[in-house]
């Protein structure tokens, strides 16, 4: 049976400001990328989400980002290597402590926002993130943009890498994500999203914003938790896959029923 992981970025609420419906998403996804406090999230909220993930049998990953609460981690930055390595280790370590208290453990790392997009092609910043992961726990899986140079770079450095596709984001012809500043960069229709991801799983292709098909092979699919229709999109994806005989299963070895 064909299987696919379904992940979402969670734990991004901050105090009284709510971001997404984490409880509902944790009933659907198989892996949860949990904010570590630098781009979003506060310790109490993160701990609550981790406890719910543990109860649901959802695999947990550290969603590390730039130190950018005001910009939600979506602004390009150029920290020194010492800063980026230290910041990445700090975030993973913080989440490991909270996860242990919640009865679960951090199994993988997925960079967030601008950091994610930057290291896809920036070898220096990618090397810093890779070095940080290896320093704290080289057994952590690295979740990265399918087809990007960082995938080979991380594998060559000895990390286990899982390639990721984005259900609700438009693609350029070179396999990069369309900038959020441009119209059409985020896809909102659950039916359209489900059909394009079904094509990706079955045919290893995705249709770009220009209407052409490009190769795309991924083991995990992300639905952004802060997208307004996120829960509906994730539900439609799961339902579509299950009806087509595609198993929802975490790459980290945990399965959410």
TrEMBL record:
A Pfam family annotated for this chain is LamB_YcsF
Please write the reaction equations for the catalytic activity of this protein: 5-oxo-L-proline + ATP + 2 H2O = L-glutamate + ADP + phosphate + H(+)
EC numbers, comma separated: 3.5.2.9
Keyword entries, A-Z: ATP-binding, Hydrolase, Nucleotide-binding
Show the InterPro entries listed in the entry.
Glyco_hydro/deAcase_b/a-brl (IPR011330), LamB/YcsF/PxpA-like (IPR005501)
Has the keyword Cell wall biogenesis/degradation been applied to this entry?
no
The molecular function GO annotations come to: 5-oxoprolinase (ATP-hydrolyzing) activity; ATP binding
Q: Which Gene3D superfamilies match?
A: Glycoside hydrolase/deacetylase (3.20.20.370)
Q: Which GO terms describe its biological process?
A: carbohydrate metabolic process
Q: What class of enzyme is it?
A: hydrolase
Q: Which domain of life is it from?
A: Bacteria
Family listed: Belongs to the LamB/PxpA family.
Q: How does it assemble?
A: Forms a complex composed of PxpA, PxpB and PxpC.
Q: Which HAMAP family match?
A: PxpA
- Provide the function of this protein: Catalyzes the cleavage of 5-oxoproline to form L-glutamate coupled to the hydrolysis of ATP to ADP and inorganic phosphate.
Name it: 5-oxoprolinase subunit A
